[in-house]
Every structure is written in structure tokens, then in C-alpha cells.
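Here is a protein:
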Amino acid sequence: MSQAVRVVWDDALISYDFGPGHPLAPIRVELTMALARGLGVLDAVEITGCAPATDEELALVHNRDYIDGVKGVSATGRPNLRWGLGTPDNPAFAGVHEASALVAGATLEAARAVWTGETEHALNVAGGLHHAMPFSASGFCVYNDPAIAIAWLLAQGATKVAYVDVDVHHGDGVQAAFYDDPRVLTISLHESPTTLFPGTGFPRETGAEGTAVNVALPAGCGDGGWLRAFHAVVPPLLREFAPDVLVTQQGCDSHALDPLAHLMLSLDGQRAAYAELHRLAHETAGGRWIATGGGGYELVQVVPRAWTHLIAEAAGSPVDPATHTPQDWRDLVKQRTGETAPLTMTDGRHPAYQDIARGYDPADAIDRAILACRNAVFPFHGLDPMP
């Protein structure tokens, strides 16, 4: 199904590092790239480098005073709470501007390659920093690389861009950047804001002409319920919107083992979502697909396997879930983290879901979340909200 596929990578991307003990540890992307390489997944893609985003590119989303403020923190390493740097979530560190601009530049390179037709799909697993706001850092995110890439695509002439965010946390920064812009459809599937940061992402947040879409799922939601919600909302909206490009944020912190949230997906359920987003990119966006990483804080058991599956899916060569992880990779995991690596590329689950068109249960919290979302936005798009 896929043609040319690029992975944007530079070893310097691991310099986006808030320090020891911070949940967003760069080892997660190091181990991802090592696992993808060890399984031969990277043999099926083109690896390309990137340059830091320029101030002009960052300013597509971020206020210039904020960019200057980040540069000031970057030069000294000293906190500046005016810009949200120096908090437990967003510690200040020397070089923060350069590291953050490189992450944004990697996602911009992915966007450029797809928009110019040099490749069909492009990925930046180090990206997906979806909480950053125009005037401040937030939620481990300094510059909002998905929003910057979307703004760049619009500046290049894209008339409609769809953004689907499967991170367990609401994609608040991207939604905020385009809340009043009907050219951008933002869809976020996340744990309910009543139980998880950032406290936004209610269905009533509908944006311009129903183009902000929020599926707020109850804590404890697993593969079947999550996939039911995804299929009840995402495909019909993407088909109706018919974007020029599909941008996705692939945070894998919806996994049951993630320490910062309360959804219960398996690696196998996440893999099913990757396959469906890939299919929808071809069906609704002419195959133009830009994917980023995002959240994911189980650094050994989840993130490397999840995003290796993502790369393999984008490349059109999915990894058999029964595949054993390479011994060299397991040795690297032990050496770098002291942990025992997973032996295979599966959690041993076989996710299934029942389409909501076959029946709606008003007593079920997941079905109520689905219908709340559909009631809020489907009429804007000429779609019937009732199953």
C-alpha cells in the first residue's frame, strides 16, 4: 500500500532531555530506533536528517517574545517561569531552544517531504510535543512541532489538514492553535479531562464549524472500547472532511503499563490503530501521511515496540506480532536501563470491537462518550450523530 517512506532522524534529537528522573526520557527514542534497526524495519525506509526550525518557522505558531524567552533560558540554563520553563514538568536546561527547535525541524522536514511529493509517508518519532502553547511551555513540550508543521502546510497552499491525536492526553496545544480555523480538523481521543492532565478536551469544545473534535474516554477503557470509539468517530469525519494531508500524533501512553495515565490498551490494540490510520491516509488524504511520536512513559516495555510497529506499518511491512526481539537489543536494554527487555513484539492480545452501528448502550460509559462527541460535532459535517 505504501510507496516511498521516510523516517526523519538525527542522533542530536536525544538532546531534548529534561534531566534524570524526568518521565520524558530520551532513552525511549534511542531504544525505538535501535529496535527498528535490529528488526530490519529501517531497511524498508529512507532515513533523512533535519535542520533546526528557524525563528520564522517557530513563529508560525509561537509568539516571538516566547521564542526569545526560550533562547534566554537556553543560554543560561536558568528558569524563567514567565515562559513555563523551570517547573517540574518543564525543567529549564542549557540548550533547550536548540534541542526543541531540532524536534520541530524534524517534523517540518517530514511535512516538507510529504507535501512536495518526495515521499508518501514521513515519520518523526521524537516529535509530537502537542501541549506547547503560543506563549508557554506545557506538559513536557516547549515548541509544538505538529502545530508548526500544520501551519507550514497551510502556508504552502494546503486547503484542508486533518490532525488525529491518539495520545492519552488531550492534544490541547494543537487544538488551541487552530480552534478558530475551519481549514484544520483536530480529532483527539484521550482519557477524560476529569481524571487526567491537561483538564481540557470535553466534547463541547467544538471550535470553528465543528472542526475541534474530542472523544473523552473513561479511565479503564481498554482495546475493545477504545477501538469502538475510534471507528465511531474518526473514519466518518475524515471521509467527510477529505483533507489534503493527514497528520497524526501517535502517543502510546494509552497503554495499560503507562505510569502517568489510566487507560488499558495493549500493544496489539495500538497496532490496530496504526493500521487503520494508515488505511485512512490512503482513503481520505491521497496517501499523504505525516506521523509523530508523542507521550509514552513505559520506556522499555512499551514505547520501543509500539513505535517500531508504527514505522513498520507506515512502510507497508508490518512486523509479525510473534516476532522475537533481537538478542542484541535485549542486551542494549539491560546495559542502558538495567531492565529485562520484552521477548516478543506482542502483548498476546487479539483486539476486537463491536461497531456502534450494531447498537448503542446508554448505560455504558464508553458509548456515552462516543455519543457526546458525535452529538457535538457530527451535525456540523452533515452526519447523523445517532448510531
In short: The longest strand covers residues 184-191. The chain has a mean pLDDT of 98. Residues 378 and 384 are 6 Å apart (CA to CA).
